[in-house]
Amino acid sequence: MSAMPPGNPASNPFVTSPTYLMACQQLRNVARAISLDPGLTDRLMTPKRSQVVAIPVRMEDGRTETFVGYRVQHSLTSGPSKGGLRYAKNVDLGEVAALAMWMSWKCGIMNLPFGGAKGGIAVDPAELKGGEKERLTRRFTDEIQNIIGPRVDVMAPDMGTDEQTMAWIYDTYSMKVGYACPEIVTGKPVELGGCVGRKEATGRGVVYCITEAFNELDIRPETATAVVQGFGNVGSVTCEELVKLGVKVVAVGDRYGSIRNARGIDIPQLLNYAARNPRKTIVGFPGAEAIPDAELLTTPCTVLVPAALERVITAENAGQLRCRVLAEAANGPTDPEADAIISNSDIFVIPDILCNAGGVTVSYFEWVQDLAQFMWDEEEVNSQLKKQMLRAFHRVRAEAKARNFGNRLAALSLGVQKVATEKQKRGLYP
């Protein structure tokens, strides 16, 4: 059973989301493991601030359509809240709240001066035409203007959004406050104060963690194979970086389908193929065979990288995974029931809040550079990213060994404990 949040469940707006209940269950597990005060646990389970807004947009055909947008700030204890903005057809308040909670733990693991936040608009971005996406983004920014700011809440790209989306938010916010404010968002174009290497940061961070896992397990990259679910920004960069190490990528999937080639997929050719495809999909790539989506995650490999949606590894397929390393590039790809099954196997798990923390880490670098108006070169960015990722990886492994925890519980306990300690030190007002 998933842990229920505090208060009256009937009046809690988040409980209809299985993703939020999953995040609550994880927090309860950590609280028991580290003997966290129940009152503090309840505080950590309840987002600090949530806002739901209606976003009317003039569509290309002249009609007006109203979309629903969300922004959830889980914690403001450690500093301004930080988190992505996703455009996805089925996004809801509970999912956004769960992602915001995970972002708090992620920032805690990486020792960043941020709390967790997340935003979303219930829309399929592939269906937007002409200037609709820009108008949607600018109106959403205007609607949540009262709860964002460079010292309050800083957005970044996520699923369905990109650096152009961030540029529109930056411009809209700056027009409202009356001066250029690049530090309001991260992941924006370099020409507007973005950080070099930010776009590739999450995928690079994933591969830094995989490399450390290989070292610990005595696996040589040139003998390893990989399966990657998701070929967006994170999945494609992960594929590129793995190939540079000598790893053979044997199967890849995206929202439209999955492909496999046991001899290895030519990733540069696949990138070119997807870029030329009107739907930006890998489906139909001549250098691999099509396979059912259900077979992708169970394809034999050294490292499996879910880099798409949450809750794709469940009790139904967890026992069929045939990988040595599970590197969670997506947020929440493994549900608690599946996690219990995997914990009884020899699979080495790199949990999501560690594995995909490269994005928020370089977002922090970008925010610092914008505040200081002093930009770093890419060598410095990548060097600092690798340093921070390896430090966090080894902290998690040390915690796991010292307390006989699995990697997920170790990572969560470090993230939760940091936020909990800061709340305790600050006290309760009034």
Classify the oligomer.
single chain
Radius of gyration: 21 Å
Number of helices: 14
Separation of the first and last Cα atoms: 35 Å
H and E order: HHEEEHEHEHHEHEEHEHEEHEHHHH
The amount of beta strand, in percent, is 15-25%
CATH topology of the domain at 199-355: Rossmann fold
CATH superfamily descriptor of the domain at 199-355: NAD(P)-binding Rossmann-like Domain
Global shape: globular
Give the class from helix and strand content and strand pairing: alpha/beta
What is the CATH domain class of the domain at 199-355? Alpha Beta
Site (Important for catalysis): 158
Protein name: Glutamate dehydrogenase
Domain Glutamate/phenylalanine/leucine/valine/L-tryptophan dehydrogenase C-terminal: 195-427
Family: Belongs to the Glu/Leu/Phe/Val dehydrogenases family.
Plain-language structure description:
This protein is of the alpha/beta class and 430 residues long. It has helices at 18-34, 38-45, 93-109, 132-143, 163-177, 198-217, 233-245, 267-276, 293-296, 336-342, 352-355, 358-372, 378-403, 407-426; strands at residues 49-58, 64-73, 81-88, 115-122, 153-157, 225-229, 248-254, 257-260, 289-291, 303-306, 325-327, 348-350. Among the domains are: 47-180, Rossmann fold (3-Layer(aba) Sandwich), CATH 3.40.50; 199-355, Rossmann fold. It has 14 helices and twelve strands. The strands form two sheets. Strands 9-8-7-6-10-11-12 form a seven-stranded mixed sheet. Strands 1-2-4-3-5 form a five-stranded mixed sheet.
